[in-house]
Design goal:
By secondary structure, the chain is an alpha/beta fold. It has a single domain, classed as Rossmann fold. Helices cover 53% and strands 13% of the residues. It has 9 helices and 5 strands; from the N terminus they run E-H-E-H-H-H-E-H-E-H-H-H-E-H. A 5-stranded parallel beta sheet has the order 2-3-1-4-5, sandwiched between helices. Helix 2 crosses helix 3, helix 2 packs across helix 4 and helix 4 runs parallel beside helix 5. The radius of gyration is 16 Å and the shape is globular.
Length: 199
């Protein structure tokens, strides 16, 4: 099983990753693919610069490149339960779903395994997102409300090219939407209610 996660920064995707790791899932994030590429290109690993590297990778190799690279690593790993975090373009969803559909890109690599794939969206109200990002105090996070709003909008697709970040469009293609406007316990229970039906 491969579970892909999408949603705005600060929405709680990382909490779902923790739940799935307890269920025996291995974890990969699409930003790992960008960081690898940034290192190859000798570019500093700072959020804005990484966003530009990711966008240039999509321009050069197609909008699904990050997910394609992540899925190749997953299939080569031999492990059969994975969570992919950081899906930000609908083409990345298409790449994850190709594994289940056994599309040509992955035939031969799949090696007879039948993977199921699910895309999970996490929804959080904007004001709550902003307050969570301000309070979590990650070094990479924006420090002012205006800067956070600008980054959230950019992630959602405002001013971005089609092959750039398009989280709003990703959220329209999910298999399930998990609400995270309450407590961590409510997020966990909501996610596990769904997961226990499909595992």
């Amino acid at each position: 099983m491969i579970i892909g996660l999408t949603g705005s920064m600060g929405c709680g995707k990382g909490e779902i990753v923790k739940i799935l790791e307890k269920e025996g899932f291995s974890y990969i994030t699409l930003s790992m693919m960008v960081r690898e590429e940034a290192r190859k290109r000798g570019i500093e690993e700072e959020r804005e610069k990484l966003m530009e590297v990711g966008n240039s990778m999509r321009r050069e190799e197609g909008a699904g490149v990050l997910a394609r690279r992540a899925v190749a690593k997953i299939l080569a790993s031999g492990h059969d339960k994975w969570v992919i975090d950081g899906i930000r373009n609908p083409a990345e969803i298409d790449e994850v779903r190709k594994v289940e559909e056994k599309k040509a890109d992955f035939i031969g690599v799949i090696d007879g395994k039948d993977f199921r794939s699910f895309i999970v969206g996490v929804n959080t109200e904007r004001e709550l997102l902003i307050s969570r990002i301000l309070s979590r105090a990650r070094e990479s996070d924006a420090k002012t409300k205006d800067e956070i709003v600008r980054k959230i909008d950019r992630e959602l697709g405002v001013g971005e090219p089609e092959d750039g970040q398009q989280v709003a469009k990703c959220l329209q293609k999910v298999d399930v939407m998990i609400d995270n406007n309450g407590t961590l316990a409510e997020l966990s229970n909501g996610f596990l209610d769904w997961y226990n039906k499909v595992k």
